[in-house]
Design brief:
Length: 101
């Protein structure tokens, strides 16, 4: 038997296709989105209005059933569409929980 054929008989084998992905999906913890109080919303609005392109910020926002923290430079602010861009990530105003300068 050639050496290449002998090595292939010891290659990993997935008997159940998609099983690893299903396990990973089951392990994911879903975090519900927090509804902010009126005071928190006003303060967040104040912080968003203070933002300028080029500011270095840390934003905590809701994405894919979890809260994510992104630190970087603000590259775009679009108040009409309701989002800001930190580096290359677009973040909707309604998903933001906290902004730190």
């Amino acid at each position: 038997m050639p050496r290449a054929d002998r090595a292939s008989q010891f290659m990993p084998f997935a008997a159940l296709k998609g099983f690893e992905e299903a396990l990973a999906a089951k392990e994911k913890i879903i975090v519900p989105k927090v509804e902010l109080s009126e005071d928190a919303l006003e303060y967040l609005d104040f912080q968003i209005n203070k933002l300028r392109v080029g500011d270095r910020v840390t934003v905590v926002y809701y994405e894919d059933d979890a809260y994510v923290k992104k630190t970087g430079m603000v590259t775009k602010i679009n108040p009409q569409a309701g989002y800001l861009t930190v580096v290359t990530t677009d973040i909707g105003f309604e998903d933001i929980r906290d902004i730190q300068f």
